[in-house]
Every structure is written in structure tokens, then in C-alpha cells.
## 1
Amino acid sequence: MFDTSTYKNRRKKLADLIPNCAMLISSYPVAMRNPDVGHKFRQESSIVYFTGFEEEETVFLYRPGRTPETVLFVRPKDPLHELWEGVRFGVEGAKNHFGMDACFSIHDLDKHLSELLSPVEKLYYKFDTNPKTDTSVLNAVESARRARGRTGLGVVPIFDPTEVIGELRLFKDREEIAALQRACDISAEAHVEAMKFAKPGVSEKQVEAVMQYIFKARGSDRVGYDPIVGSGKNATTLHYNENKDTCKDFDLLLIDAGTECKYYTADITRTFPVAGVFTSAQKDFYNAVLTAQMDVLDMCKPGVKFIDLQEKARKSLSEQISKLGLIKERPEKIYEDKLYQKYYPHNIGHWLGLDVHDVGAYFLGGDSRELEPGMVFTVEPGLYVPIDDQDAPEEFRGMGVRIEDNVLITATGNKILSSGVPKTVDEIEEVMKLPSKFADL
Ligand code: GLY
Ligand code: MN
Ligand code: MN
């Protein structure tokens, strides 16, 4: 994780956005798959962002300008649990190590919360992260309200913090960009290994295994989302992640996979022919999506509105849809009547950071926001033709292609953080000729 000064600086910026207020952030509940064996926990992204604290059963309360200003509720030391689950920081340890003003046991949340909230004007808190914390917050606010008669304080309205937090997390600093670059580099290596490994007869799961091997071998703690490894018509199912079919000759293979570094995730998609060489139809279809992606990437610079990227993708894909003969209409008609939605049903991209679909407003005061240096987002056009689409030329039926890169806006333009993965037809075919170190899998 980063130095404690990084988190302190982030909190200082938050203080300016929420004067006289407080923000409370809860960790997610421990998911119950099989409570007997446990499973890995991932900290809530904004707790990571403001504190760097990684343990479960955590509540972070920030009251800028008050004493104590930073309060962390954590699991207390417990030798028996620590024997099974590993060492905890505990109350004292967390306070010292994470530079908090005060730390309490999570079991004492209800005891302290009402008093800590009573002087604040309003509370930023996101419901539905953790039902147990929801109850504690509601009880604390209610008891602060009841105490109002005596103190004149204590009606604490609750506001959703997503927008405030989003405004901070949207702009990545040097350390965050380095983490994102590392996440992209590891993910790029995994995509390259997948290309080298794929051939007719391997399973989608084996391809995923090759990627997971690289992720772990390079020290990544977890993937940012379940990898999608879809061959043939599976590529036309947008959230396919069963990854259980066998890759066949003449299939395209769509892989959407990205891993984390320091909690920041990559989100990269490539599509390539299982056999290592594009057929003529596959090449046309692939280049149609690539053209649209390059059109959008060329526009990514400060001052351009996010919605303009969206419209550019729609326009460009409308041209390509017409050219491929998927819809026998003029490009203008396909664009204006939104006919492209049949083959391009999703958006051009999303903010990227601690979460794969990261926080941050796309519109400000009803207007699409402009790109600014430090923003990181995906550019991911795609075309997907259902296998039973009688309107489409037969050669394209069951074809799905998405190309997804991760883009950082710089002072003068952009930097493609995921540029380590081959993308043109020639580049992909060249890499696929190389031997795979996983060939015996
Ligand atoms: N992998 C999720 C997405 O592309 O949005
Ligand atoms: Mn993706
Ligand atoms: Mn994405």
C-alpha cells in the first residue's frame, strides 16, 4: 500500500468537500459461502482509498475539523481467531499504523456512534453496503435526534457519498497511475500468453488458467472482475464467464480480463482467431471494430466531452455496420435511428480505478463532463451478431468482437496504459506464431 501521507492528503481534499459534515464508510459483510472454511475478503474501495486499511469488519468515520477527526472501528485482537485467520492489527495497532486519531473495537460501534455523529450537520453514508452498519447508523441518528431537545444538535440528514467520493477518485495521481500501469502490464502479459497458448482443442478454462498463472506469478492479489473467455458464439454473450467450452478451429476467442495491482484494476479485451490466422470474414469484422476504436482513441484529450466519445463510437460503428452489410441501410440512417443498438448494445466505456466500473460522475449539472488530465477510462467498442440472426450475412453470424483499452488523459492528449497487448491483425498473427511456455498444459 502507499505511505500514510498519501491517505492523509486524500482526506484533506475530502475535508474541503464536506465542511461541518462527516463521512462514514463501511466494509462489506463477510460473504457466507461456506462459513466453515472461509474465503478471501476484499476491502471496500473507498476505505482503501482513504485509509489503506485492508481488514474486514471495518467502519471508517471521518469528521473533518473535529476531535477526533479520523476514527476507525476494527476487529479487536483475539488470539483464538488470529490462530485460524491470521494476525490482526487490533485497536491500538490500527491506530498507530494507519495514523488515526481514534480507534475502537467494531463491537463498540453502537456505543460510540451516536455521540460522534451528534455535532455534525450532515452525514455522508451509503446504504446497502452492509446491513449491520445500516442498522447501527440508523440507530445512532435516531438517538442523536432524541437527544436534540437537550443539546439543540443532532438531526443528522444522511446523503449519498458516491458523488463526493467520485470527484476525488476520478482524478488519479502519480502513485495511482503507476499502480494502474502495473495492473495493465501484468494483464497485458497474460493476454499475450493467452494468444500464444490458444489453439483448436484447448478449453476456455485452460486459457483462463494460463492468464491466472501470470496474474498470480506477477504478484497480483486478485482479478478486478471475473474473466470472460468466450470462444465462437460465446463471444456474443456480453457477460459470459462460465469459460467451459472448447475452442474450435475457425472460432474467434474473446478475452476480457484484467487483474489488480494495489487494488487498482486493468480492464482489457482482445479478440483473436483460435487458429492463429484470421479468415477473410473475421478480418473484415475485426477491422470494423478496430477502426471504430481508433476513431475514438484519436479523440481522447483534455476538453473533449465524454458523450462525444460515445457518439463517435456510434457513428463510426454505424458506418462499419453498413459497410459489412449487417444492416442494409445508409450509415446516417443506422446512426440516427439507433439501429446500431442491435449489434452494439453497450456504451463506449467507463471510468477505471479501484473498481472496474469506477466511481465518478459522467454528467455535471446535466451536461456531459469534459475529459481532464488524470482521468482513466476504458474505450471498448464491440460488435456482436447473434448466431440465429437471419438478417446478417451468414459469414458473420455468431461472431463477437470487442477491443478494450485503458486510457489515461494527459496534459496534451492520452496515454494508452494497455498498449502492451497486440491489437492489429498483423500484430496478433505474429504473436500467435510464438511458442507457448504452457504448451504441455
Ligand atoms: N469487464 C467489464 C467491462 O468491460 O466493463
Ligand atoms: Mn472489460
Ligand atoms: Mn470495461
## 2
Amino acid sequence: MKITSICCLGAGYVGGPTMAMIAAKCPDIRVTVADMNEKRIAAWNSDDLPVYEPGLDDIVTTARGRNLHFTTDIKAAIAGADLIFVSVGTPTKSYGIGAGRAADLRYIESAARLIAEVSEGHKIIVEKSTIPVKTASAIQTILAANSTKDATFQVLSNPEFLAEGTAIADLENPDRILIGGEQTPEGLAAIQALASVYQRWVPREKIITTNLWSSELSKLVANAFLAQRISSINSISALCEATGADVDEVARAIGTDSRIGPKFIKSSVGFGGSCFQKDILNLVYLCQSFGLPDAAEYWRQVIHLNDWQKSRFVEKIVRTLFNTVNGKRIAILGFAFKKDTNDTRESAAIHICRDLLRERAHIAIYDPQVDAAQIHQDLTEAGIDPELLATNVELCDSPYAAAENSHALATLTEWDEFRHLDLPRLYDLMLKPAFVFDGRAILPTTALKALGFDAFIIGKGA
Ligand code: UDX
Ligand code: ADP
């Protein structure tokens, strides 16, 4: 089966960039990205894309209007496609059975029902969103039960491994492409059809094919292993602070062991992002559901350690500022969950700002890409009431504006521009003693101390 028309349901951080890359690499395939969120689609059709991602503007501009289209007409997009990516959100359930752990599959289910309603002929449905194992079977059941026009379907799992901030490079040159499908002649043909799309730019040996369940599970496990490395090094960061060791030196020392490797052992104020916590919770729920409480508890500790790392950072600030931050201005540099993205989902900054606000601090936030409305929404959803938000939160347009008259400054996102701050200027602007809490270990410790700052750097002993 040759694919000539693709559609993607969901124009988010995954669907948007992934489809833009497919469209850029396959000019002869029509790629339509459909989302019910009109504002989001309008932004994808404008010069101000809803997702900040280095290099994304260029590939969208190359393909948009040629073979890449963004639309809210979801039904037409489905009807016209041979292959449909489902890239809708799968947030953690906040209610009922499995609340706080299981994935909320209502968007997946409604997408499947719509596909069934609209489709004719043969279609390949591809799960792109991260989903619990066995979701493909739920999708198959919904499709089979609701198809009205004698349509036939093959469901594939093709998880996305791109990381935000490096999405374009990750899509252009992925470590691997994973495609899971039914091990029947029809399933294998569908796998081959999707593989042939990626083969336009990805070497065949990088395309791994498996059964459906292995593919679905591998996505959760990949994220759990990555997050586990960060929690492991973060547990050691506390020990470094207590002993006078330097966590970056420890990471370098262990990372040169080829069995350990150098990546994902950078200590931080805690991992964030839309995937790690959600996927581990999902894995925990799966283990519990299959009667494996010890395995569930093992993975739950990765999240527990991450929450502890964030709380520990706030406690350090409060204790250092003479046990009270009430009424004190604290500059927050960085609100995104990592550099080079405007995404704030599960950002450590939300947790830290919330806890500082509960201590009645005044916080002055600067982030180069996150907009004010997003920060307000995140803090409101974290339980900060509008009055406190109005009186105690200031959004600034430079690190220096945030630092002015602050008692302390905290770096929470590793934006490159924070590595080149004018430290003497910052010092002059701040109240004395001037405290720095570097949650990303990006500031030069010796230079800070030479200027007179009282500096705490995560994972570095005094
Ligand atoms: C992650 C996975 O990397 C990606 O493969 C998957 O598809 C989606 O989830 P993402 O959440 O976009 O990607 O970003 P990632 O680079 O993994 O960072 C996640 C969090 O971990 C960030 O808050 C980051 O700052 C933090 N992190 C990362 C560390 O604290 N230390 C590290 O060494 C690496
Ligand atoms: P991700 O980071 O996984 O891309 P996002 O939340 O950024 O997640 O994007 C998911 C998108 O999916 C949202 O823009 C949402 O409006 C969209 N969406 C949800 N359900 C459907 C659906 N049935 N059809 C099309 N789009 C949908």
C-alpha cells in the first residue's frame, strides 16, 4: 500500500513538528494536521507558531501551503487520508478509578469514534500519543463496533521519541523509529507502509518493528529509564551538598564508564515536561493493575525523589533567607521545564513558585519564551488564588528587571542566556546580602562568590 495522504489528529508539541518534518521530507505526500482548537490552528497558519522549537519555523514555512495544511475540519481530514496519526493529549486522570496515575483516554476514544464514523475503504491508524499498553485493542474494538461504511482498519503503534527543544534535530536524525503492529499479513503490510514513509530519510536499520504491545510498552519504559537516571543523580546531588563533593564531577566520573554513559545524568531542580511523570504514573498503574505492587513501588520512587528534590530546593531558600521569605522579593529566572521550549507542563518552576508564594514571598519571574498568560494559568491551576497572584507575582522582561531589589535570585531553567549574565550588574541591583540559588548549576560559582554573592549551587558542596 502506498501512502499518498496523511492526516494527524492533534496539533500539539508532538503532532505539529512531526507532521511538519514528514511534509518537508515527502513533498509528494499530502499532510493535514487537524485540531478542534481553533486558536491553535490559526497560530499554526500564522507567522507566530504556537510551539517554540528551534528550526521549526523554517520547515513549516517550506512545506505549509505546499503539502502541509492545518485545519479544524477534522472530518474532512480523516476522510481524505490513507494513514491517520492520533496525536491527541493523554493527560493523567484527575478523577475516579486510577485518578492521579492512569491515563485519561477520553480524547483517544473520541478520536477513534470519529474515525469510525467518517472512514470509508482501508485506513491505517497510528498511535503517536503515549498511551497505556493495550490501548490499540481498545481502538480496534471501537473502530470495529462503530464503522458504518464497511471500512477496514489496521492499528499501529509508532511512539514519538523527540524531546522538546531539540525536536527538529531528533526528527531529522532519530536514534530509532519504532513501529508496532499486528503480526498478521495485513498488520505487517501496514507496518511496511508506514516504514516506507520514514525510509525517505531514516536508514532502514534504524526502523525497529515489533508487536503492538512491545511498542506501546517500550515508550513508557524508555521514559521511565531516562527519568530514573535523573532521579538517581538528583539523590546524589543532596549527598554532594552534604559532603563537599561536586555532582558535575561525579557525573563526569561515572559517565565515562561506557556502561553508564554521559547523557541524562545532569543534576537539576527536578525533571518536568509532559511525559516523564505521566508515563511513570502510567507504568505504576499498569504494574498495580497486573498485581505487581513491588514493581509499582520501585518506579513510584522515581517520582517521589523528583518531588523531594523540588521541595528540598524551596526549603533551602527559606532556611537560608533567615527562615522567612514573607514579603521578600525573589527573582525567578526560567519558567519553562527545560531550555529552548515555551512548554511549562510539569515544570519544576511551577512547584517552586507555588511553595514560595505559600510562604508569602513576592516573586518576579523572567522567562525568554513563556508568556504571561501561561504563567498565570499554571500558578492558578497549582492552587494560587487570584488575589495572591495579583499582589505577589510580577512578570519581568529581563533578568535584571527581575533582580532589581530582590533578596534572592533562583535559576530554574537552563536557558543559554543565563550563562552569560552580567553578574556585577545583577549584584548591584539586588539587596544585600544577595543570595543566589542555582537550580541548574549553570552559574560560575567562583565568580559569584568573588563578587560577594551568597551562592547555593545544586549538587555542590560548600
Ligand atoms: C522526554 C524524552 O526525552 C523524549 O524521548 C520523550 O519523547 C518525551 O519525554 P522531553 O520531556 O521533551 O522529552 O525533554 P527531556 O529532554 O527528556 O527533559 C525532561 C526533563 O528532564 C527536563 O525538565 C530536563 O530539564 C530534565 N533533565 C534532563 C534533567 O534534569 N537532567 C538531565 O540530565 C536531562
Ligand atoms: P502533545 O504534547 O502530546 O502534542 P498537546 O496537548 O500539545 O499534546 O496536543 C494535543 C492536541 O490534541 C491539543 O491541541 C488538542 O486540542 C488536540 N485534540 C484532542 N482531541 C482531539 C481530536 N479528537 N481531534 C483532533 N484534535 C484533538
